Amino acid sequence: MEELLPKSDLPLNFKKRTVALTPPDVLNSLSKIFTDITKHCPFRPDVYKSLYITDDLYDFDEACDSVFWNQLFYTLLYQFELIRYILDGHAFFLALHDAALNTFDIFDKKKNIYVKDTLVINCEQFRDYDKLIPLISGSYTKLVLSGSITWDQAKLLMHKGVKQIIIDAKLDISPTQYDEFAEFVLRRAHGFDFK
């Protein structure tokens, strides 16, 4: 089959606009068509399936060491929904990650991050969450928050698609927010998928 318009002859603005409108999780497939796509998308976020972010260098080293085993476990077992449910249980879930980043590198590069499945964040400083939250987006359904976080910061990370949440952090919540937090817990504690 002969191409009507060879890819090399496509206008540069067309390529840039196509890249700008392409959802981040489809961008890898698009790179098979446009091999020079990386030139046209320096502003696009880095895409991760599951990501662990921390501001502690020791914790970062531990997370990097576990990436290989998490990937192996996920590839062999965790991809099957029944096995996933048995391993996770009714009220908990495994927070496997296939990549790890430290906040220092993220802040230096000021690169946006897109997470598809699981987001784990462990920051000891409230100000690190303040700087990190605007850089994170995605369709992640599992969220784990550790370290120190305010309730207002946590709400910013919980979009409608988040079904499973673990807050294993020192949660700074004002007395005026107690009712709101209780309502949130009651709304989230329902259904088969919500944890």
Tally of domains: 2
Count the beta strands: 6
Oligomer: single chain
Unreliable parts: none
Mean pLDDT figure: 75
Radius of gyration: 19 Å
Helix content: 40-55%
Q: What form results from the Cα inertia axes? A: globular
Largest sheet geometry: 6 strands, parallel
> Helix and strand succession?
HHEHHEHEHEEHEH
Strand pairing plus helix content: what structural class?
Answer: alpha/beta
Number of helices: 8
Strand content: 15-25%
Distance between the ends: 51 Å
What does this structure look like?
With 195 residues, this protein is an alpha/beta fold. It has 2 domains: 20-89; 91-194, no CATH class. Helices cover 41% and strands 23% of the residues. It is built from 8 helices and 6 strands. Strands 1, 2, 3, 4, 5 and 6 form a 6-stranded parallel sheet that branches. The longest helix is centred in the middle third of the chain and has 22 residues, at 57-78. The chain starts with 11 loop residues before the first helix and ends in a 7-residue tail after the last helix. The model has no long low-confidence stretch (mean pLDDT 75).
